[in-house]
Design goal:
The complex is a heterodimer of chains A (about 70) and B (about 270).
Chain A (H helix, E strand, L loop, with lengths): L6 H17 L14 H15 L2 H15 L5
Helix pairs in contact in A: 1-2, 2-3
Chain B lengths: L5 E10 L19 E4 L3 E9 H4 L1 H7 L3 H21 L4 E2 L5 E2 L2 H10 L1 H11 L2 E10 L1 H15 L8 H36 L3 E4 L5 H4 L4 E11 L3 H16 L3 E9 L12
Antiparallel strand pairs in B: 1-3, 1-4, 1-5, 2-3, 6-8, 6-9, 7-8
Helix pairs in contact in B: 6-7, 7-9
The chains are: A mainly alpha (about 70), B alpha+beta (about 270).
């Protein structure tokens, strides 16, 4: 499982983005007893970006996301 | 406080008369068996998960672990794909939709009864296809230049001053016209694919850092296509790929997907 993070890894992560785009789709209305919240969906996207972008961009995005969700730890 | 015990992870819902073949299909938690739980009309495709990994608290932590997320998302998807191999319609659940017990699943099926039956009816024999359009800025500008060169009036007819002003104006508007060209092209693609599909929806374009693509995503469309028309849809995408390449637009087709984007509305279409 421990594959290196080279160009190959970025290929896989692109596909993961498409997967997450659908598997975490906010349009599916049925809720379970435990359901990923919208703030947590934002967190997932944030982490995907974190994987793929530079540290400086991420810091800015993190600040933005925290502003938008009013903090993630809830 | 770590959660203990187990919950039920639900992948999707199918009509009770469907018989998805799930033997040997790995569950989202390895070692669990995938089962059908339901009533006379609806079945949930589900498997048990330990709450110390899939409980609310553990989930929050695990979602930050991209390797965990990828594993979960891929096994979720693999189960849906397997069900879709034999089922005529499914309503996919969002990743990590978990119930306390079997009773919780049955309650959900009862509560969402109308909505689930309606969604299944709507997506029966249909698949979702994704088409993204990515604009290569340099190629788009080249296309704009080529077009204006063809349309430009004879430069010799105007004076030098006129030519200078015209050139400046052209440079200023190059970006603007590039955007117009791309937007028109994306609209054309979406309009054509909407004709080729039963239903369609526009998703927010993925940001460049997330898409991992160099071009700017100008279209992220989802299209619900009947199985019998899938080949025609793919052919349309291939044709559009050819025609739009000339304006610097690249199309990216993926599918068939479970109909995630077409099970949400509760009102009839």
């Amino acid at each position: 499982m421990a594959r290196g993070r080279g160009e190959l890894a970025s290929q896989r992560e692109v596909a993961l983005v498409d997967l997450v785009d659908r598997a975490l789709n906010t349009g599916v209305v049925i809720h379970g007893d435990i359901t990923i919240s919208l703030a947590e969906v934002d967190l997932v996207y944030l982490n995907l970006r974190l994987l793929l972008s530079s540290v400086s961009t991420v810091r800015r995005d993190l600040a933005e996301a925290l502003d938008e969700t009013g903090g993630l730890a809830r | 406080m770590a959660e203990q015990g187990q919950g039920w992870y639900v992948y999707c819902v199918v009509a009770a008369d469907e018989r998805p073949q799930l033997e040997g299909q790995p569950a989202v938690h390895s070692g669990s068996e995938i089962r059908l739980i339901g009533d006379e009309q609806l079945s949930a495709v589900a498997s048990t998960v330990p709450l110390d990994e899939f409980g609310a608290e553990a989930l929050r932590r695990n979602l930050e672990d991209m390797a965990w997320l990828e594993r979960a998302a891929r096994s979720h998807q693999a189960v849906l794909d397997r069900v879709l191999d034999s089922a005529t319609a499914i309503v996919p659940m969002r990743l990590c939709t978990i119930f306390d017990d079997e009773e919780g699943i049955r309650e959900m099926l009862a509560r969402e009864h109308e909505h689930l039956l309606g969604s299944l009816e709507r997506v029966r024999d249909h698949s979702e296809w994704s088409v993204k359009a990515l604009a290569d800025p340099a190629a788009v500008e080249a296309a704009v230049r080529a077009r204006s060169a063809a349309a430009a009036p004879d430069a010799g007819a105007a004076g030098a001053g006129h030519a200078y002003v015209a050139r400046k104006r052209e440079e200023r508007s190059l970006r603007e016209r590039s955007r117009e060209l791309v937007e028109a092209a994306a609209e054309e693609v979406h309009a054509r694919l909407s004709e080729e599909s039963e239903a369609h929806t526009l998703l927010p374009p993925q940001r460049r850092e997330v898409s991992g693509r160099s071009g700017e995503m100008v279209l992220n469309g989802a299209y619900l296509v009947h199985r019998s028309r899938a080949d025609a849809f793919r052919a349309a995408v291939a044709e559009l790929t050819e025609t739009q390449r000339g304006v610097g637009l690249e199309l990216d087709l993926s599918g068939p997907w479970a109909p995630y984007n077409f099970v949400a509305t509760e009102q009839p279409a």
